[in-house]
Structure formats: structure tokens, C-alpha cells
Amino acid sequence: MSDVILHHYDLSPFSEKIRLALGYKGLAWRSVKVEAVPPRPQLDALTGGYRRVPVMQIGADIYCDTQVIFRALERVQPEPTLYPTGEGISKALSQWWDRSTWKPAIGVLVDHIGEHLPEEFIKDRRDHYLGYDISKEAMAPMLPVYVQQMTAFSEWLESILAENGPYLTGDRLSVADLTCYHSLWLLRANCGAETIDAQLKLSATIIAWMDRIAAIGHGSVTDMTPEEALAVAANATPADSFAADADPSGLKLGTRVTVTPDDNAKVPVEGVLVAADAQEVVIARDHAETGTIHIHFPRAGFETLAAEGSAAQTAA
């Protein structure tokens, strides 16, 4: 197997989920640091313009979004599993937490450190990523609401832990833990743990749970340049074992499609459909710097549609 390569930046909370997953599975991996604000030309060559981070690469297979990265890591190394009680509860908790807490977490974050965020970062997130102004001044009027929401959701986590044990789905860590950890990690790492613990009234139960997750660490990491990652793709052929012809909407393999996030950073990636089931879709693309690559996306949170003018759009 080719090396696991993660394209990420240090303060990306979504990247922290994957760094911890790699540590939990005991995988050695290569780290490619990218800028928090595009352009990222080498990464664009691998992803077809998908602009969110992290992105995982194994040879000429590219994985976009943490959902599909987790699924790929399960294929690479099934144990220890990230889904000890099955995928359903972990994915449902993860989708809820990501969608419900992201804006309030940003609101609390910028109240503490907003004056230090570069103007280009704020402009990028407003115009090309989130669609709303995350400057300290713009978010300040709703700060009480953001604190209310984060406090309420954190109490839900405490209730789940009280029922299930040391982790959200039981005795063993799952994807749900890594996901629900990441935005609280972002706040505590940037604003001060004691400050956030007091502001959001985080209980001793929540803090101990976060300490258990942090103790996992990131595993064995070696740096790699973006140029080296491109060369890896160029010298490889797609080799992931995932193969399915079961698109739930009837899209045929061989159809040219677009895949687009449905919440933010809505940049469509176009390619030829080469595998699909109810949870994952894979498209093939060719690029002068990489040759043929396969790009993997999850189905939940993404829209896969036949590209305009594509023939044979769906099965009869």
C-alpha cells in the first residue's frame, strides 16, 4: 500500500479529527501542510478544485471530506475500528454535531481572537466558503445565542456519556467522539481551556472525555511537500478496493457527473462516475500533473448530478 498522505493545516478542526483517527489506528502517515486560504494549486490538481480541508491521499486515490476518509481508513486497517457499534449512530451524531455547532463555535472563537484573524481569511470565508461575515464585529450581536447553543449541545454530550460510558457510543472510541471533540478542541486550543470551560460550563465529565481523546495523539508523522504528493499520484494508479455499481438514483457508471457540497464551499468537481453506492461516490479525472486519479466523496452532505449535456444520465 502507498503511504497515507494528509493535506491539512494545524488549526483545522476537521483535520484534527483525522489526525486523531490516524493515531488511533496506529498508522504512519505523511503530512502535507496547505494554506488556510487558497490558492492551493497542487491540491487543486489532485481534487479538481474541491476547496475544503482535510484531503487524504493514498497513491492516486483522493478522499474528500472526513466521512469518506474515515470509511477509507476502515478499509486500509479495519482494527481498531472507528465504528464499534456500527456506522449508523456514529454518522448520525457526527452529522448533527458538525451541522449544528459549526457557526456557534465560530461565533465564540472570533469573540476571543477575531482581532487576530487576517483580513484575507475573513474575506475568503465570507465570499467563497461560508457565505457570511465571521469578523468579530459582525458576529458580536449574536454571541449570547452562540454561547447558549454551544452550552446546550455540550450538555447533550454529557447526557450521552452518562448513559453510554467513557465514550459516546460505549466502551470504545468511535467516529462520533472524534467529531464531537473537534470544535470544542478548536475553542479550548485557541481561547484557553479554562476560559472556554467556564464560558460554556463544560462539566468534569466532558473535560475528562476530551482528555482521553487528546491522549490518543497523532501517531507517526513525516513531512512531505505538495510537489512530492503530486509525484506520488503521477507514479501510481487508483488502487482502492471500493467498487460498486449501486447508485441509489440510477446514475450509470461512465456518466459524467458533478459532485458538490450542499452546505458551504459549493465548488462542483466534475468527472466520470466509476463507483457508487448509498454511502460513497468515486469519479475519475485526468490531469497533466497527476495522470488518472480517482476522487472519493461521501453521499451525505453532497449532491451528485449528471453533468450538463451528459448522455445516458440514469439507468432505465
Automatic annotation (TrEMBL):
It comes from the Bacteria. Pfam families: GST_C_3, GST_N_3. Gene3D superfamilies: 3.40.30.110. Residues 2-81 form the GST N-terminal domain. This is Glutathione S-transferase family protein.
